Amino acid sequence: MVIYGVMLLGLCMFVGTSIGLGLGALLGIPGDIGGVGFAMLLLVFLSPWLKAKGWLPRASEDGIMFWNAMYIPVVIAMAATQNVAAALSGGWIAFIAGILSVVVCFVLIRPLAAMAGAATSTFGDELEASKA
Length: 132
Known about the structure:
Structural class: mainly alpha
Strand content: under 5%
Number of strands: 0
Radius of gyration: 21 Å
Low-confidence stretches: none
Order of helices and strands: HHHH
Mean pLDDT: 78
Largest sheet: none
Shape: extended
Number of domains: 2
Helix content: over 70%
Number of helices: 4
């Protein structure tokens, strides 16, 4: 039964890549545009639907979770490596834009964390009040 989960993941990857390549062709870009993202969206929407229908037993979910732990981080790392290689071959402007975006995000960590802390503490206070 685990193989059915792996099959579902593979099918979603195949369909997502096909959509990404089709979108690339429509836009005149020779490549896959968001194929992995489309595949993950398909998996996110198909899994609960199949589970509600009773067509996705626990063993099949284990197959999906296995590749979730192994495959998806590898694909993302490979895509990130390709993006870095393309950016570095693109010239200094891509390199400067990458460095600048990292610096801006680094500077925004503390203000965003403070805003999240305020929102979290407000929610926590409401939660504590509802328990009392």
